[in-house]
Amino acid sequence: MARNVNCVYLNKEAPGLDFQLYPGDLGKRIFDNISKEAWGLWQQKQTMLINEKKLNMMNLEDRQFLEQQMINFLFEGKQVEIEGYVPPVED
Q1: Of the residues 2, 26, 74, 81, which has the maximum number of CB atoms within 10 A of its CB?
Q2: Domain range annotation of the chain
Q3: CA–CA separation, 75 and 83 (whole Å)
Q4: 35, β-bridge pairs
Q5: Phi/psi at 59 (nearest 5 deg)?
């Protein structure tokens, strides 16, 4: 049976992650408060950030930047701004 969480990003109850995907206290906070759907949305933004900003995950500063963006996106409701990206126009 799926584990439900009260997702702070979606502001509703939704299926939670199957296991802790991120280390440490932040990982526990994500596991307890973020749904699979919200995590999937973050992964899309994360991929775009890494590619567009040419982040190197071996670089501590780049990892710290990405972690702060993740916190802003998942817990503070801030949208990730990616230079040059224009979302598709819906008809």
Answers
A1: 74
A2: 4-75
A3: 22
A4: 16
A5: -90, 120
Asked whether 26 and 53 are in contact (CB, 8 A), the reply is: no
Q: What is d(CA 18, CA 81) in angstroms, rounded to the nearest whole number?
A: 29
Query: Tokens standing for 12?
Result: 């509703």
Say what the pTM is.
Answer: 0.86
pLDDT confidence of residue 1: 58
For 4-75, the fitting CATH number among 1.50.10.10, 1.10.3880.10, 2.40.160.60, 3.40.50.10490 is 1.10.3880.10
- According to the 3-state scheme, what is the secondary structure of the chain? CCCEEEECCCCEEEEECCCCCCCHHHHHHHHHHCEHHHHHHHHHHHHHHHHHCCCCCCCHHHHHHHHHHHHHHHHCCCCCCCCCCCCCCCC
Q: Are 26 and 5 in contact (CB under 8 A)?
A: no
